[in-house]
């Protein structure tokens, strides 16, 4: 498998099954994609999400009717507790060229990862389906360890621009940026005081 960052703005995502898992997958996509949840019943976890709901008993539907639902979708998630039904949806997606994620049954061609999200970065974590708990564990560790990462990205951006003006050698610019990243005192300052971290970067790394 290959990780990609996708822009799903305006894309249609279908979630089959509106239980707890369907609701978590719907919440994953709803801030960007046009999400429709198709299900017999809808968990309260879906309340407040910007999604469309479509009530249907999926096992009663022919392949033809399921294909009608899938028309125009970019990605589909099967999140019913019935692996046979989920796998049937997966086969129809494969036939129609629609990306498919399966919550229970034969794995699809998409895994939904754990995500560490800042305003300047995204980290996606997967264990290739072996242990979602490990993905979640890593996410919480990274969130705790790198609380200052957005500010470090801002500092690097600022120092890069400054160095382009003042330091002609690419190798030297690279060395200085790396020394800022490797400096515990700068990370520590970033947690509470961006200005102080910036001063430290200039004193300790630029003028070293
Ligand atoms: C393959 C995958 C399919 C996919 O893409 O959905 C999948 C499959 C399955 N998950 C199961 C169980 C649980 N999953 C979670 C949570 C998360 N699961 C997520 C992703 C994935 N889960 C994909 C692989 C990710 C990877 O590659 O690592 C996360 C990352 C993203 C998200 O769903 O939002 C999100 C954590 C988000 C976060 O907090 O960061 C918890 C709760 C918990 O741990 O908190 C439990 C209960 C505890 C347990 O069983 O571990 C079961 C067993 C069902 C059963 O036994 O009946 C299956 C089915 C199977 O394994 O066959
Ligand atoms: N991929 C993942 O991250 C995880 C997957 N799972 C698996 O996902 C599956 C779903 O879990 P939950 O959401 O907790 O189950 P749930 O029972 O709470 O919800 C299932 C939803 O599917 C709907 N549904 C079931 N059969 C249907 C049909 N024939 N037609 C229309 N709608 C139908 C139900 O109305 C309900 O809304 C389970 O098999 C579980 O083992 C569980 C945990 C995590």
Automatic annotation (TrEMBL):
Q: Does the keyword GTP-binding apply?
A: no
Its annotated pathway reads: Porphyrin-containing compound metabolism; siroheme biosynthesis; sirohydrochlorin from precorrin-2: step 1/1
Family matches, as SUPFAM superfamilies: NAD(P)-binding Rossmann-fold domains, Siroheme synthase middle domains-like
Q: Which Gene3D superfamilies match?
A: NAD(P)-binding Rossmann-like Domain, Siroheme synthase, domain 2
The enzyme class is oxidoreductase
What is the E.C. number?
A: 1.3.1.76
- Swiss-Prot/TrEMBL catalytic activity: precorrin-2 + NAD(+) = sirohydrochlorin + NADH + 2 H(+)
> What does the UniProt keyword field contain?
NAD, Oxidoreductase, Porphyrin biosynthesis
Q: Which Pfam families match?
A: NAD_binding_7
Keyword NAD set for record? yes
Q: Which InterPro entries match?
A: Met8-like (IPR028161), NAD(P)-bd_dom_sf (IPR036291), Sirohaem_synthase_N (IPR006367)
Q: Which NCBIfam families has this protein been placed in?
A: cysG_Nterm (TIGR01470)
The protein here is known as precorrin-2 dehydrogenase
């Amino acid at each position: 498998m290959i990780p990609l960052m996708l822009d799903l703005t305006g894309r249609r995502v279908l979630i089959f099954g509106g239980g707890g898992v369907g609701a978590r997958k719907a919440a994953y996509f709803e801030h960007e994609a046009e999400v429709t949840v198709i299900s017999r019943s809808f968990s309260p976890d879906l309340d407040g999400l910007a999604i469309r709901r479509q009530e249907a008993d999926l096992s009663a539907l022919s392949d033809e009717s399921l294909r009608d639902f899938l028309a125009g979708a970019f990605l589909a998630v099967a999140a019913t507790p019935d692996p046979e039904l989920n796998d049937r949806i997966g086969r129809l997606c494969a036939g129609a060229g629609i990306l498919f994620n399966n919550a229970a049954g034969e794995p699809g061609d998409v895994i939904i990862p754990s995500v560490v999200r800042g305003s300047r970065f995204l980290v996606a974590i997967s264990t290739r389906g072996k242990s979602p708990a490990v993905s979640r564990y890593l996410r919480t560790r990274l969130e705790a360890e790198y609380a200052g990462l957005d500010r470090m990205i801002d500092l690097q951006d600022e120092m890069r621009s400054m160095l382009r003006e003042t330091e002609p050698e690419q190798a030297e610019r690279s060395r200085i940026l790396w020394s800022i990243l490797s400096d515990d005192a700068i990370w520590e300052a970033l947690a509470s005081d961006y200005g102080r971290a910036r001063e430290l970067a200039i004193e300790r790394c630029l003028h070293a």
